[in-house]
Amino acid sequence: MVLSPLPWPVIASAMHHATELKYRDGGFTLVEMIIVISITGVLIAAMSLFGRQQIEAYFDVSGRAILADGADTALRRIGRELQAALPNSVRVNGNFLEFVPVTGGGRYRADFTPAGTLNPLDLNDPADNGFDILGPTVDTVAGDQLVIFNLGQVGSDVYAGSSRRALTTIGNALSALGFSGAQFPFGSPLHRFQIVNGPVTYECDTVGQVLRRRWGYGFSTVQPIVFAAGSSSTLVDHVVGCTITYSAGALARNGIVVIRLRMQAENGETVDLMHQVEVLNAP
């Protein structure tokens, strides 16, 4: 049996139908695209509603952590400096904390020797302006000053200058020191001396919302709160609240400085930190 070929119109119709099926299987219609876009938008909106709180909480926690880290670093630096401050030099006036950093120190020779080859400090001799250092040598620079037995009171106050004298010996690895001016009014029971260069002030500026460190402005009997000279640097910003208190120990000669800071982030979140520093005041 011999099959006769199909007429050409039938073949053409079949090929056109196959082409339509091919195009339909390989793409999307406009209606299908609109439906997919609509469903995707609904899903994204639902995800944003459920995940918004988690995202905001993450940024809030991150902001608080940054604030707390900056404040903690600043408070720890203040604590390290206070623990190495000159005994009885800490004073507070509102949001201003002032003290005198110690750059060096040791023990001075106080015993006399028959040979006369050593150089003790004779507090009974107004003309005696030098002594030998017992123990390790010290380094001094221009502007350094000598302090002996600072009590932080009338007659022995580093700010008033009664326990402070200008050094005349400048250099490295010094085994003896000389000073100018009158004789020291009091001697240290343990024959201690300290070398200082100038006071330092930490200022909580809640208007400018910063915590500043000031130095290089010189000694003053009255604690300064306005600085016409010296240098300053910002330790931390976003400071909106600050409280500084100082309690001097009467018996053990140990004082306590308490610093409270309130930090505020851009979104209004606040962080409160408190730092206590024990200050050794035995001169």
| Helix residue percentage | 25-40%
From the helix content, strand content and strand pairing, which structural class follows? alpha+beta
Rg value: 38 Å
Major beta sheet, specifics? Answer: 6 strands, antiparallel
Number of domains: 2
Q: Please give the order of strands in the largest beta sheet.
A: 7-6-10-3-4-9
If you average the pLDDT, what whole number results? 86
Q: What does this entry show, briefly?
A:
The chain is 25% helix and 32% strand.
Question: Could you please describe the fold and organization of this structure?
Answer:
There is one protein chain. It is built from two helices and 16 strands. It is of the alpha+beta class and 283 residues long. It has two domains: 8-95 and 199-283, no CATH class; 102-197. The N and C termini lie far apart (129 Å). The model has no long low-confidence stretch (mean pLDDT 86).
